[in-house]
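Students often ask why inverse folding is considered easier than folding. One informal answer: many sequences map to the same fold, so there is more than one right answer. In these notes we will look at a single instance of the problem. The structure comes first.
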C-alpha cells in the first residue's frame, strides 16, 4: 500500500493527496497515518514540487469532503437501516453495525463536540459523520467542527512526516498502538459514566 500511496502523490501531487484522504474517509483500511506523513516527507525533499502548506490544505480538503459523504447516509436512511446495511455490505468497507453504534453513543454523549473530537479518535474518526446526520446536525455546524478537528489531525501528521523525513513510517508504527490505548481509555470512561448514571436513581 505504501508504494501505491507514494506513486499517487508523486503522479498527481496535491490532487493525489486530496484524493487519498477522501478515499481514506470512505475506506477506513486506507491509513491517514501513512498518507499525510509520506506527503509531508515528500514536501521536505530538496527540489520538491510540493510545499508543506499545500500538502496540509490538500489533505484537509480531502478529509472534509470524505466526511461529508458519510454525513448524508445518516441523514437520509437513519440508524436502523444503516446498521442493517453495514452488517450486509460493510465488510467491503471495513465497517460493521457495531462501529455505527459506537459512533452514535460517542455523539450522544459529546454532542457537537463529538464531531470535532471524534476526528482525532481512531475507530470513531471516520464514522462520526454518520450519527451527526442521524441526529440532524446542521450541515454548516458539521462542516465547521469537522474542519477544525481534521485540521488538527492532518496538521499533526503532515508536520510529523516533514520533520521525520525518510523515517516518516515511524508515525504509523508508534501512533497505531497509542491510538488503541486512547480508544480503550475513552470506552472505559464512557462505561463508567453510564454505570454512574444508573446508580443515581437507586440512591434517591
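Output (designed amino acids):
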Amino acid at each position: 500500500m505504501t508504494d501505491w500511496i507514494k506513486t499517487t502523490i508523486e503522479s498527481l501531487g496535491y490532487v493525489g493527496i486530496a484524493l487519498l484522504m477522501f478515499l481514506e474517509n470512505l475506506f477506513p483500511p486506507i491509513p491517514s497515518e501513512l498518507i499525510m506523513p509520506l506527503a509531508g516527507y515528500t514536501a521536505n525533499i530538496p527540489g520538491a514540487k510540493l510545499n508543506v502548506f499545500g500538502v496540509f490544505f490538500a489533505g484537509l480538503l480531502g478529509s472534509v469532503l470524505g466526511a461529508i459523504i458519510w454525513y448524508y447516509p445518516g441523514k437520509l436512511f437513519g440508524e436502523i437501516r444503516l446498521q442493517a446495511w453495514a452488517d450486509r455490505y460493510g465488510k467491503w468497507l471495513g465497517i460493521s453495525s457495531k462501529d455505527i453504534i459506537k459512533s452514535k453513543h460517542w455523539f450522544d454523549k459529546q454532542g457537537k463536540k463529538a464531531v470535532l473530537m471524534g476526528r482525532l479518535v481512531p475507530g470513531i474518526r471516520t464514522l462520526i459523520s454518520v450519527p451527526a446526520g442521524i441526529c440532524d446536525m446542521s450541515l454548516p455546524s458539521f462542516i465547521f467542527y469537522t474542519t477544525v478537528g481534521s485540521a488538527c489531525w492532518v496538521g499533526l501528521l503532515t508536520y510529523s512526516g516533514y520533520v521525520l523525513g525518510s523515517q516518516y513510517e515511524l508515525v504509523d508504527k508508534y501512533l497505531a498502538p497509542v491510538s488503541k490505548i486512547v480508544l480503550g481509555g475513552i470506552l472505559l470512561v464512557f462505561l463508567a459514566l453510564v454505570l454512574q448514571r444508573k446508580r443515581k436513581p437507586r440512591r434517591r
